[in-house]
Amino acid sequence: MKSDDPFNKRQVAWGMKNLMKVHDIFGVWKLISLQFARTDTGECKDMYGADPLGYIFITPDKRMMTIVTSRNRAEADTDSGNAALFKSMMAYSGPFRIEGNDQFITNVEVSWHPGWVGTEQARTFSIDDDILSITTAEVLHPMFPGQKGCGILKWQRTSRF
After folding, report:
1. What H or E segment, with its residue span, contains residue 19?
2. Cβ-contact 147, 140 below 8 angstroms
3. What is the pLDDT of residues 1-12, one digit of tens each?
4. Would you list the DSSP string of 90-157?
5. Under a CB-based contact definition with an 8 Å cutoff, are residues 50 and 70 in contact?
6. The pTM is what?
């Protein structure tokens, strides 16, 4: 193939664009929204309210950490109140790897839910300017018993690494 072949130039341009896309994921991101999209109907439900709190840190040394909570959590002083607080949050962290141009997979080392420790959490992502969109794999979610769907998260970049 000649070096001035337009197909070869397109391949190089595609590769550079996607390499930059992967590096664009590194940074600190503030949560904008988190919804559960039902597989059967497409219906979306806010998982932690209309205005959840959360951050995700994704570092160039391939580590991530995230925490998400409902905004209006009240302090608790009873076991049932503490259990409710646990249900209104999510947090986990670990090293990750990039696969392809749109997926990162985290090896969970620590988590708010012990069942996640030692698992791999695969996420598909896309970046549009300073908005990071992440979609989880399809699951049966305990917040929505008997309903299969995906988590859809939108994040706003606050800083780059």
Report:
1. helix 6-24
2. yes
3. 444 544 444 444
4. EEEEEEEEEETTTEEEEE-SEESSGGGTT-EEEEEEEEETTEEEEEEPPEE-TTSTT-EEEEEEEEEE
5. no
6. 0.84
* Inter-residue contact 32 to 46 (CB < 8 Å): no
Q: Answer whether 21's CB lies under 8 Å from 134's CB.
A: no
CB crowding 77-108: b at 16 or more within 10 Å, else e: eeeeeeeeeeebbbebbbebeeeeebebebeb
Q: Produce one character per residue of 140-156: b if its CB has 16 or more CB atoms within 10 Å, e if not.
A: ebeeeeebebbbbbebe
Tokens of 130: 């300073």
| Residue pLDDT, tens place only, 15-62 | 444 455 678 999 999 999 999 999 999 999 999 999 999 999 999 999
